[in-house]
User: Fold this.
Amino acid sequence: MSSIVSITMEYFKRIVLIITLFTAVEGFGQNYSFKVKYGMIQAGTAELIYHLENGILNSRLNINSSRWLSTLWALSDSMKSMYAVETAQLKIHTKAIHEGSYHRNYQVEFFDSNRVQINGKSKDLITKGLKDIPSLLFELSKTHFNKGDTLHYRVWDGKGYGALVLLVEKVTGPTLLKPFSEAGWHLTPLNSTRKSRGNHIQLALLLSESLPHIPLRIEIDTKYGNVLMRLEKP
Assistant:
């Protein structure tokens, strides 16, 4: 039984996600609700919430395993952040990880004086313009892409950050070899972290052609299998 749970944990972390997206916009807020599937199996739910006021983007991302999967392995991850849009700088980043028996919590506050406080402990931080996952998706949604562009980001997650360089390519639509391809912008990383190299992870992202860009498809190929996140059209 423990081996089944272990395998389930690894596969769920690199899950094949087929996403149904419902969007509600009220004033300066935007909500996204997701149904998460592994293959044909209902695996969980996710919710991404944005609220923009006075130049500050408040974001919240919650991911939870479905009831049936929770009987084998419970997932309850959340991320909250405050991001200054004009200066492109994170202000607050909170992450709670609850994956089976693995629990971690990070409370991070960023200061203008090149200091960051992580769970009450301060340290120097030279880098500016940091983004976490929600704020990165927000920035990508309003970016004007050109074929051949390389986009440079520094992404914070939990207690640290890493460099992310994305190559932009234009996809015109279905072809003879790829009859189900969708038109849009194809983004692929030109760099990888030590962790991603160790897991043999390759990532590809397809965003909608028009602004604001919506993630149509995310593909991750790992040593555990192929991960697919696809936007299900209404």
